[in-house]
From TrEMBL:
Entries under InterPro entries matching the protein: Osmoadaptation_assoc
Residue spans crossing the bilayer: 256-276
Keywords in alphabetical order: Membrane, Transmembrane, Transmembrane helix
Name of the featured protein: Zn(2)-C6 fungal-type domain-containing protein
Length: 320
């Protein structure tokens, strides 16, 4: 059955290439749906017995392909219908290549933050992702700062960048307060057989995006600051990892489905990236336990292993 699925997948890829070259088909919503389905197939069934890195590499290619399709349509083409819904749902994942390359994302431009919502109001998740898409710019400026050789120029750029980070921190705190996270906090410790609603899953996913955004920002702030002691105790990536770890029982329940696995990949991957130097921590042990022993953890662990083998494929193992 697996081999039959791979054959169908290969045929679909060939048809997709032809459709992308056909001006009458390239703007069809079916192209977006097919791209999403193929990325999910690659995530859970695309392991290559010979090339262990191929799975993550192919998945990232699908993500980049989806970005290219949306860019071809332009911001106005993402303002309504299926295109709008899929753009909103996929925007957090589409910023991943920019986080990996540590280069500003085109999705952070004012047009891409405003025009797609000219006909529809933004949700709480949309407002949060508006902050997330700016994070690659922080990483790019951090790299530029490290390359600065003039001491005085470096000090001024360091101060300016830290102030920019504080601005995003204030935005994140304001978002957190407005989101009323206490409504989902109790769901983190559900028993394995407890019923969890789709609303609980969706809200916990949004909260995980918050902790992931904070994780990347706080890690950058610690590197920008002259001394970690000048930052308040709450600016701690480990706290973010702890909250992500607490959410795993929801996403890795045996009846949660592949969709839950797909949306937890980004938070878990970023948490493990940070915890790679904190392997003695409770947070690392908790995440590894759910991946290694959870009913749904196998596919997640398999994909993360593929990403480790392909350093150019995913942000999780960026050395910077």
């Amino acid at each position: 059955m697996r081999d039959a699925g791979l054959r169908i997948y290969g045929k679909t890829l060939c048809k997709m290439r032809g459709a992308l070259l056909n001006p009458l088909q390239v703007n069809c919503d079916g192209i977006l749906v097919a791209t999403k389905i193929m990325s999910l197939f690659e995530m859970f069934h695309g392991d290559d017995r010979q090339d262990k890195a191929a799975q993550a590499r192919a998945w990232v290619d699908h993500v980049k392909g989806g970005v290219a399709i949306f860019l071809g349509r332009g911001p106005k083409g993402c303002a309504s219908g299926v295109s709008h819904r899929m753009f909103c749902d996929g925007r957090a994942i589409m910023v991943l290549p920019s986080i990996y390359t540590r280069k500003q994302s085109i999705l952070s431009s004012p047009a891409w933050k405003q025009v797609p919502w000219s006909l529809e109001p933004k949700s709480a998740t949309d407002n949060l992702v508006d902050i997330l898409v700016d994070i690659p710019t922080i990483l790019e400026k951090l790299d530029d700062l490290q390359d600065e050789t003039d001491v005085e120029k470096k000090r001024k750029r360091q101060e300016a960048l830290l102030q920019t980070c504080w601005k995003y921190d204030r935005d994140l705190l304001a978002w957190f307060i407005s989101f009323s996270p206490n409504k989902v906090a109790d769901n983190f410790e559900h028993e394995p057989d407890a019923e969890i609603s789709m609303e609980d899953i969706a809200r916990t996913h949004t909260l995980n995006l918050y902790w992931t955004t904070c994780l990347i920002l706080y890690n950058a702030m610690r590197r920008i600051a002259v001394s970690p002691t000048e930052l308040p105790a709450r600016i701690d990536p480990l706290i973010c990892c702890r909250n992500i770890a607490r959410s795993l029982p929801i996403f890795l329940k045996k009846n949660s489905g592949l969709w839950c696995l797909s949306i937890v990949l980004f938070p878990v991957g970023m948490a493990l990236r940070f915890l790679s130097v904190e392997k003695d921590s409770d947070e690392y042990s908790r995440i590894r336990y759910f991946i290694d022993h959870g009913v749904q953890g196998f596919h997640l662990g398999q994909f993360l292993n593929s990403s480790r083998r392909n350093a150019s494929a995913l942000l999780l193992h960026n050395s910077k």
